[in-house]
Amino acid sequence: MTSRIDLFDKALTSSREALAKAPYMFPLATVIDQLQYLLDLEVGKTLDRTGLDTISIGQIAARDIENFDSELADLLHEVSAQVREMAGQL
């Protein structure tokens, strides 16, 4: 099983690469910001968990990413599932 840190890091790297290839995909900038927050939270760089309520990676993946890059969208849906699990731990 992939750790959250590995999952978040892979999604962050993939999102940055996708944005570099398609700078017009501005929703990816939001995804990148949210993934960085999740990674910081998971490694203990930030302790503020209140941002979990505002994570919209799954919605963005469904609305904007699926038709652009289905593999990235699948990865972001995995992240979204982990966020729901993390939010349940509050």
Task: Please tell me about this protein's structure.
It is a single chain. The protein is an all-alpha fold and 90 residues long. It has one domain. The chain has helices at residues 4-21, 27-43, 57-65, 70-87. Helix 1 packs antiparallel against helix 4 (70-87) and helix 3 (57-65) packs antiparallel against helix 4. The radius of gyration is 12 Å and the shape is globular. The protein starts with a helix and ends with a helix. The mean pLDDT is 94.
Low-confidence stretches: none
Number of domains: 1
The amount of helix comes to 55-70%
Write down the secondary-structure element order.
HHHH
Distance between the termini: 23 Å
Q: In percent, how much strand structure appears in the residues?
A: under 5%
Oligomer: single chain
Number of helices: 4
Largest sheet geometry: none
So what's the overall shape? globular
Q: What is the SS-derived class?
A: mainly alpha
How many β-strand runs? Answer: 0
Radius of gyration: 12 Å
The overall pLDDT, averaged over residues, is 94
Question: Quick recap of the structure?
Answer:
By secondary structure, the protein is mostly helical.
Record keyword descriptors for this entry.
90 residues, mainly alpha
Layout of secondary structure:
Blueprint: H1 4-21, H2 27-43, H3 57-65, H4 70-87
Helix pairs in contact: 1-2, 1-4, 2-3, 3-4
